[in-house]
Design goal:
With 163 residues, the protein is of the alpha+beta class. The protein folds into 2 domains: 48 residues, no CATH class; 98 residues, Immunoglobulin-like, CATH 2.60.40.10. It has 2 helices and 8 strands. The chain starts with a strand and ends with a strand. The site of zinc ion has 8 residues, from loops.
Length: 163
């Protein structure tokens, strides 16, 4: 009976422990089976429990983490050109999650003095918000309002993505 060498694929005797052509050990997996399986298991465990590892393989659902990303020092100003009115919102985002987010989505709502909603929109900043760090963000959007009716705004985080 013959088998094929696991390395060079030449036909060798079935009972050969080493290939006579390339000298490769034919029994490596048999002798190291428990070690190989244990290593695979350890990698699976790492994959399941480590946020850093999961981060590289999949997009993380941001919903459970949004409370740990905070907006501070946000301010708004308006620009007017031939095409209409633009809102520019800047602020600081502090990321107290274990993840680095490569894009954060906001909901911007504009109100008049009676707290009536004038316009609302979803906006995205494609900055890289590193874990444990603070970074400035900037959002710009055309808005459908008269600037003299505007009174205040609300800015809410709605999602973040890791890829
Ligand atoms: Zn061989």
């Amino acid at each position: 009976m013959v088998k094929k060498c696991i390395m060079c694929t030449k036909e060798i005797a079935d009972e050969a422990k080493k290939c006579p052509y390339c000298r490769s050990d034919q029994t490596f997996f048999e002798r190291h089976k428990s070690g190989v399986l244990l290593s695979l298991f350890a990698v699976l465990l790492l994959f399941a429990f480590s946020p850093e590892i999961r981060y590289y393989f999949s997009n993380v659902d941001s919903a459970p983490y949004l409370d740990d990303i905070s907006i501070s020092d946000s301010s708004i100003r308006f620009k007017t050109d031939n095409y209409g009115v633009y809102a520019v919102v800047i602020g600081n985002l502090t990321n107290n999650t274990p993840y680095t987010w490569k894009g954060v989505s906001f909901e911007l709502s504009l109100y008049n003095a009676n707290d009536e909603l004038m316009d609302t929109m979803q906006l995205r900043d494609y900055g890289v918000f590193s874990a444990g760090k603070s970074l400035k963000f900037r959002l710009q959007t055309p808005v459908d309002i008269k600037e003299n009716e505007y009174d205040h705004f609300k800015l809410k985080l709605i999602a973040a993505t890791t890829q």
